[in-house]
Design goal:
This protein is mainly alpha-helical. It has 11 helices and no strands. The two termini are about 20 Å apart.
């Protein structure tokens, strides 16, 4: 069993991917600066690659540099979609409200929003939603449509209706950009948006704590049954707050939950 809730696990994994992306970006910039002349022509590029004992399948340096930036989007989306799937799975298993199944036309983000806030987002969070959906499409094209590129101009134009510059975390970024011009700034914008949107959604999940208690392994229950009442309450609170999220409803139900555990 994981030792963190899905939000903290997402932030940790995303942080590792971000560190890798940042290192690759630094390496790319150093390489381009140091070998700018060599990568301008195919012959000199081949000669450089041969010196480094690397055989490249493409010597279009401009395309490859742009493709690296799009790969950052792919990595961030991988982390974000994993979080969204886990959130939907938790709602399905432990949510208070009936779970609405994901439609084929739905993204995992839309499915999560539908189940958590019934698709009712404030203007600011709607902007983040549309931004993340745009980068999801960029990811899809980067991964699946290498021969037939879809630039997603319609979705890009929709983003022009938002003033992302007013948000301090985006103020210095030159983003969002069109597919052909995706940059490191787009990666920064996407990763920051994912963290904010994931945090917002996670904090609004309505858990049914009785369902959570009923799913706790009997081995853990037996350990708690040896505790005195006050220690047992604290242990249950810590367990749920670590793996899920505790809210005021949990504190109101704690006595009932302890009785339920003692009866098992």
């Amino acid at each position: 069993m994981q030792k963190k809730n899905i939000l903290n696990n997402f932030k940790d994994v995303l942080g590792q991917y971000c560190a890798i992306n940042q290192f690759i970006e630094l390496s790319k910039r150093c390489f381009v600066a140091d070998y700018n002349t060599e990568i301008q022509t195919r012959n000199s590029f081949i000669e450089l690659a041969t010196q480094k004992e690397i055989t490249l399948t493409s010597y279009d340096s401009e395309y490859m540099v742009n493709a690296i930036s799009r790969s950052y989007i792919v990595n961030v989306h991988l982390c974000f979609e994993t979080f969204l799937k886990e959130a939907c799975n938790e709602i399905k298993k432990f949510g208070k409200n009936p779970y609405q199944e994901k439609l084929k036309s739905d993204s995992w983000l839309r499915c999560a929003v539908k189940n958590i806030v019934n698709e009712k987002l404030s203007k600011d969070y709607q902007a983040l939603f549309d931004l993340c959906e745009y980068y999801r499409l960029i990811r899809n094209t980067a991964v699946h449509d290498l021969c037939d590129v879809e630039s997603h101009e319609k979705e890009y134009k929709k983003l022009q209706g938002y003033n992302f510059k007013k948000d301090t975390k985006f103020a210095k970024l030159i983003a969002p950009n069109e597919y052909e011009k995706i940059s490191f700034d787009d990666f920064v914008m996407f990763s920051r948006s994912c963290v904010e949107l994931a945090t917002y959604l996670f904090n609004l999940i309505s858990y049914d704590y009785i369902k959570i208690i009923n799913a706790i392994p009997q081995t853990q229950i037996l350990k708690w049954k040896k505790y005195k009442l006050e220690r047992c309450e604290k242990a249950i609170l810590a367990y749920i707050n670590t793996l899920f999220r505790a809210d005021k409803n949990l504190e109101l139900q704690i006595y009932y939950l302890v009785d339920s555990i003692m009866a098992r």
